[in-house]
């Protein structure tokens, strides 16, 4: 949260002590090739409005609310950091089918914070080396993320077409799931499958 021209500008919801850092300076808020800056409330106010609309289905079809969450927002967001976050976003959207909700860049052009959606879930990512408490806490090592998809074989074909490293081809598991496994550009392991445990609450 920061002040812009005497008005409070905040990113509601997920932000943003994970990635936002004063070292990034004034952010550039991007949606694809579009940059948004509200002349009165600053760059984050427009982002907040769009993000709220996007994740509840306003701007991105196919993003639906998680069961038991009245606001239509996931309650868990896997959070990853990349040396080259822009390349990671490109691979996650093109090869793995994620939808870009928001990308916030620092004055140095690095990704300070990004949010991507897949089905009724979402993840956050940012650049390594920002010096924030979260950045320091994220020690070296790979992360594993499981994502539910309807058509594993089609999803796998898309990943292969975009050059993703496949660790395990689509395989029928003895517990009823069909899934495959891939590695992203910086070593994180992604599993995509049909197994979707029901959450009762």
Properties at a glance:
disordered N terminus, Signal recognition particle alu RNA binding heterodimer, srp9/1, six-stranded mixed beta sheet, single chain, four-stranded mixed beta sheet, globular, 201 residues
Q: Structural class from helices and strands?
A: alpha+beta
Order of helices and strands: EEEEHEHEEEHEHEEE
CATH class of the largest domain: Alpha Beta
CATH topology assignment of the largest domain: Signal recognition particle alu RNA binding heterodimer, srp9/1
Strand content: 25-35%
The CATH architecture category of the largest domain equals 2-Layer Sandwich
Q: Care to describe what's here?
A:
- This protein has four helices and twelve strands; from the N terminus they run ββββαβαβββαβαβββ.
- With 201 residues, the chain is of the alpha+beta class.
- The protein folds into two domains: 139 residues, Signal recognition particle alu RNA binding heterodimer, srp9/1, CATH 3.30.720; 60 residues, Signal recognition particle alu RNA binding heterodimer, srp9/1, CATH 3.30.720.
- A six-stranded mixed beta sheet has the order 4-3-6-7-8-5, sandwiched between helices.
- 32% of the residues are buried.
Q: Quick summary of this structure?
A:
This protein is α+β, with helices and mostly antiparallel strands and 201 residues long.
Q: Which helices and strands, and how do they pair?
A:
Elements: E1 2-4, E2 7-9, E3 28-31, E4 34-35, H1 43-55, E5 79-82, H2 85-94, E6 99-105, E7 111-118, E8 121-127, H3 133-137, E9 144-148, H4 152-161, E10 165-172, E11 178-183, E12 189-193
Parallel strand pairs: 5-8, 9-12
Antiparallel strand pairs: 1-2, 3-4, 3-6, 6-7, 7-8, 10-11, 11-12
């Amino acid at each position: 949260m920061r002040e812009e021209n005497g008005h409070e500008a905040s990113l509601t919801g997920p932000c943003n002590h994970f990635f936002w850092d004063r070292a990034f300076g004034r952010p550039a808020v991007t949606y694809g090739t579009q940059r948004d800056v509200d002349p009165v409330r600053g760059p984050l106010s427009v982002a907040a409005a769009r993000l709220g609309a996007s994740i509840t289905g306003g701007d991105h079809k196919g993003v639906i609310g998680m069961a038991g969450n009245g606001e239509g927002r996931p309650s868990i967001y896997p959070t990853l950091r990349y040396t080259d976050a822009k390349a990671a976003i490109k691979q996650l959207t093109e090869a793995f089918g994620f939808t870009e909700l928001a990308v916030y860049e620092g004055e140095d052009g690095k990704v300070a914070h990004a949010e991507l959606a897949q089905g009724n879930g979402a993840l956050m990512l940012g650049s390594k080396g920002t010096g924030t408490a979260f950045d320091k806490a994220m020690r070296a090592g790979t992360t594993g993320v499981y994502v539910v998809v309807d058509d594993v074989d089609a999803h796998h074909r898309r990943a292969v077409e975009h050059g993703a490293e496949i660790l395990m081809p689509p395989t029928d598991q003895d517990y009823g799931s069909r899934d495959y496994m891939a590695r992203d550009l910086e070593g994180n392991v992604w599993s995509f499958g049909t197994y979707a445990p029901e959450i009762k609450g």
